[in-house]
Write the structure tokens for this entry.
Amino acid sequence: MFSSFNISASGMTAQRLRMDIIADNIANVETTRTAEGTPYRRKLAVFQEKQVTSFRELLKKNKGDATARDGVQVAGIVEDPTPFKMIYNPGHPDADAEGYVAMPNVDIVSEMVDMISASRAYEANITVLNTSKNMAMRALEIGRG
């Protein structure tokens, strides 16, 4: 029962980080110069299955029990390698000799779709957590009766 709480909590934590990264991408959609001297490069969260940590769960996993899960974790934050957008703006301070400015590889529409997806996943994890909590409460009520 408690493993479902841990799995849901790990999912909420991962999706919250994903939403933070998306917000950072949107905030930097016009950033043409970073500390490295290049335009801002879109960032993405990479998720992986969280490794089973308890001895009991390791035994279950080794016996082939499919319920031995610990949720999700962020494996890392990577930069999107897609090329920068070139916009003709000869008056911009970062324009090259031909008048083109390298703009971040952030697409607002894609970011909004990702934000909706992360928000829905977060809400789904809340639903699972609440359902698990209600099941635990009803199990306690059965024990009292």
The longest helix spans residues 108-144. The CA atoms of residues 137 and 143 lie 10 Å apart. The chain is about 50% helix and 15% strand.
